[in-house]
Amino acid sequence: MDSTLIELRTGTELVTDVTGMLRRFCAGRGDGLCHAFVPHATAGLAIMETGAGSEPDLADTIDRLLPREDIYQHQHGSPGHGRDHVLPAFIAPSLSVPVL
């Protein structure tokens, strides 16, 4: 098993493509599993197509499922920030993918 820490600043973008980073990490290591984890209470990892309109579709879906309104019990941060802490229940903070 090999591990590395990849630091990433995402800013305000909903989707940050980490495919290239994971490919570089896995290069030359042979077959196995690549497990990625985001150690943050408001982040998640998902496998999805990018660049074909999926990013705004995801944003619209999240807005429908988890509206930004200040309806959450979560108390710190800006109004509606509670939704950011609910999001990882829908988009998990980790995933594993086979590498061949």
What is the C-alpha radius of gyration, as a whole number of Å?
16 Å
Number of domains in the coordinates?
1
Distance between the termini: 15 Å
Instruction: Give the CA-based shape.
Output: elongated
Helix content: 25-40%
**Coarse structural class:** alpha+beta
CATH topology name, in short, is Jelly Rolls
Q: How many helices?
A: 3
CATH-level-4 superfamily name: YjbQ-like
Total number of beta strands: 2
Share of residues in strands: 5-15%
Topology of helices and strands:
Elements: H1 19-26, E1 32-37, H2 54-65, H3 82-86, E2 94-99
Antiparallel strand pairs: 1-2
Description:
This protein has 100 residues and is of the alpha+beta class. It has a single domain, classed as YjbQ-like (Jelly Rolls). The protein has three helices and two strands. It has helices spanning 19-26, 54-65, 82-86, and strands at residues 32-37, 94-99. The protein has a two-stranded antiparallel sheet with strand order 1-2. The two termini are 15 Å apart. The model has no long low-confidence stretch (mean pLDDT 90).
Explain briefly what this protein structure is.
This protein has 100 residues and is an alpha+beta fold. The chain has helices at 19-26, 54-65, 82-86; strands spanning 32-37, 94-99. The model has no long low-confidence stretch (mean pLDDT 90).
What labels describe this entry?
two-stranded antiparallel sheet; alpha+beta; Jelly Rolls; 100 residues
